[in-house]
Structures are given as C-alpha cells and as structure tokens.
Amino acid sequence: MSDIDSIRDRELRIATQAVRDPWLTEKEAAKELRVSLYLVRTEREAGRLGFARLRRRVFYPLSAIETYKASLICPAKSSSRATPQLDDTTSHGRSAGALSGAALGLKIASSLKEHERPSSSRRTQQAR
Question: Any idea of the CA torsion for 55, 59, 61, 65, to the nearest 10 degrees?
Fold first, then answer.
C-alpha cells in the first residue's frame, strides 16, 4: 500500500468517526464552551482539551469537549439547613487560618513598622 493510499484510508476513518462523534472547529468549540478562541488554544496546548489534527487543521471531537466540561465540575458540598457543617476551610479551599498573599503582606508590613518605631523615651531624647 502506498503512502497516498494510507493517507486516504486514514482520512476516511477520520471522516467516518466524525459522523459518529462530530468534530468541531476551534470557533465552534469556543462557542460550545462559551470561551474565547485563545482559551481553547491554550487548553489544547496544555493538554487539557483533546483534539485531532487533520493535516494543518485542528478539530475538537464533541466527546473531548464533553470530557473537558466534566473535568471542570467541582463537586457540591453536602450541607443540611438544620445543622450546618462547619469545616476549617474557606470557600476557596484554603484553611481558615491561611492568609491570602495580600493579607499576609499587610500583616508583615504592619509588624515591621511596629519594630521600626522608636520607643517614647527615644522620641523625647531625639526631640531635645
């Protein structure tokens, strides 16, 4: 079998597969996911979104898009209205004692300012 025949066979298999599992262009995939083309390309390049390449064109099987969507779903926490369950994490998944970068920076800055302030006896001596 020649190279041309193998390419034709491959393209025929791909076209048959596309009938069973529709393939979307990047623009169609972005519309399906409700995101920008840039994000579709970024997710593909990062390996998080499955795709197929046919010569120079890139296609996204609908099944790959559905798998990607399913991977983004965060499980809901079960809770009861009568007895709310309190845990030690915030809605962001950090522990309640953990500080965000900005809050931690402010805390460090304020502690540094406290250490830099001269005591009241030094102020009176400096003023003289």
Answer: 140
Spell out the domains of the chain, with CATH numbers in brackets: 3-72 (1.10.10)
Residues 76, 78, 82, 88, CA torsion sign: negative
Q: Are β-strands 57-61 and 52-54 bridged in parallel, bridged antiparallel, or unpaired?
A: antiparallel
Strand order in the sheet with 23-24: 23-24, 57-61, 52-54
Return the structure tokens found at 26.
Answer: 């990047």
pLDDT tens-digit readout, 56-99: 999 999 999 999 999 999 988 876 665 555 555 555 555 555 55
C-beta of residue 61 within 8 angstroms of C-beta of residue 52: yes
Structure tokens at 20: 């069973």
Q: What share of the chain is helix, strand, coil (3-state, %, to 5)?
A: 55, 10, 35
Q: Are 65 and 32 in contact (CB under 8 A)?
A: yes
- DSSP-derived secondary structure for 83-94: SPPP-SB-TTSS
pTM: 0.47
